[in-house]
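Handout, page 2. Input:
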Amino acid sequence: MNARAEPQLLGQLSNKHLDALEEETIFILREVAATFERPTLLFSGGKDSLVLLKCAEKAFGAGRIPYPLLMIDTGHNFPEVTDFRDFRARELGAELIVRNVEDSMKRGTVRLAHPGESRNVHQSVTLLEAIEEFRFDALIGGARRDEEKARAKERIFSHRDSFGQWQPKAQRPELWTLFNTRLAPGEHFRVFPISNWTELDVWQYIERESIALPSIYYAHQRRVIERKGLLVPVTELTPPQGGEEVVTRTVRFRTVGDITCTCPVDSPAANAAEVVVETLTVEVSERGATRMDDKTSEASMEKRKKDGYF
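Output:
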């Protein structure tokens, strides 16, 4: 796509639908604040959680978000993202709670099969421990239905039982934005206010609202290796194997997570407007194109969610 075509495409795109999506998100964020006693907003410093945070600012006002931010840190996150997470929380004057998978490992509640195993799936244990510690009854997350098939089955208000488990056949109807938020002791909800957004919607909103993001979401030079159709970043946690060739490519991250399972894509997009144009042409979901741990069956991801995964 040539540079001349990009502004023409952007000019043809309407973002009026973003007003309706934003209004729905703000309504849900306020509904959580009004309904639950101890809610929290899951905040990784990634693009979806930053969109949620922007909507929360609009819902309640800067410096007045009525629930803390919660991050479950694997210890293997990209430093650009965790640094930005801390900066944004300080900027807002928001309470940031960080709980670490490494602490769960020290307690013996998380045991790795081998030292190099990805800690990503083990976040669910640390998350459930944080829920018990703070007695959270609602956790607001940035998952979207277009990301992955198992996530598409989620309700906006996703009920979790006293073990923190998701039972897809026991989910409650959500007709005309009427939400059944009744809880028994020990139960909680995962709430997904941007469920109906798409990746394109997110980037259009980021561009419209001038939302700052960690730098790795935009084009930069990075050393990578090609492995099973993915570009694996070269780090201490993900070194080359068996004579793999290390190359330097211009890449960006479509989604961010644990270093051991998150890959960039080839891209020259240096700002949100360019990412919007690029997103119009992609045929693979962001997780399908960039997550090594999602190269599994839908049933496997659904099992992880039933066990308490985000």
